[in-house]
User: Fold this.
Amino acid sequence: MPTSRDIIDDALRLGFIDIRAARVEPVDHASAAMFEQWIADQRHGSMDYLARYADVRRNPALLLEGARTILVAAINYYRHPSPDDPAIALYASGDDYHTVVRERLESLAETIRQRFGGETRVCVDTAPLRERYWSAQSGLGFIGLNNQLIIPGAGSYFFLGEILSTVEFEADQPLNRTCCRCRKCIAACPGGALKPDGSIDARKCLSYLTIEHRGALPEGTDLKGHLYGCDVCQQVCPHNADARHTDEPCFALRDSYRKLSLRYIAEQMTQEEFSTTFRGSAIKRTKFEGLQRNAKSILDSK
Ligand code: SF4
Ligand code: SF4
Assistant:
């Protein structure tokens, strides 16, 4: 039976820092129930897609007929921030990870098919798959109180992607550990979204509000200077103390972003310019109206 170590060199060559295998089986009852209660409590805000395909989210076998293994891979996007950076989350500095990670995983999936046979399906945040749950199940890392997957010795600034395979790989073991529970993320969270029980209320999270929320921001929202996304709960986490700069030029901060002022975005940017500036970037997710709304909100709160 193949193991994740049989494909680690291929994964490393493609820029991943690790890849681990989990057996395809239904999500454990407690975790499924917790997620479904989170949805029932409306803590997912307007991210209605999270409430859809509950059966698939509970059972990833429904994503690929005959699936036996979920391989989870991680790629580093961390870069050392500089004082003149725009207020956007680090993950959105360069090219859209959906495209970058998918291309690389498709290449890895082809290698797997050639070497071990079977069918594969690549998922990069686009399928109803409990990504962090499977990352933890595979032993790639563990989930911190900040709701991020933490990779021991490497931190949490990673894009994740999965390959479902009909080939049975030997399952790696979950790490069976927790973060150091310092609660710095809970104390520092600018939206008060993180709870001591490890849950998150997305409706209060500035990442959700600046990216996913459509229309006017809820009354009283203070974006605290965050234009797109928020990294605070990762910045304060001691597990990120040794985060290493990514080797990937495609995740470097685009020069054009440095020239963008809040005032310019709020008052002068056009739809066309938005589309050109953020072509191939994850920032398009918030749409022109969203980015303008965020910039205006920050200016109004000053
Ligand atoms: S991304 Fe920001 S607002 Fe959201 S939970 Fe983390 S620290 Fe809080
Ligand atoms: S900041 Fe502390 S409590 Fe929060 S995830 Fe990191 S180690 Fe855990």
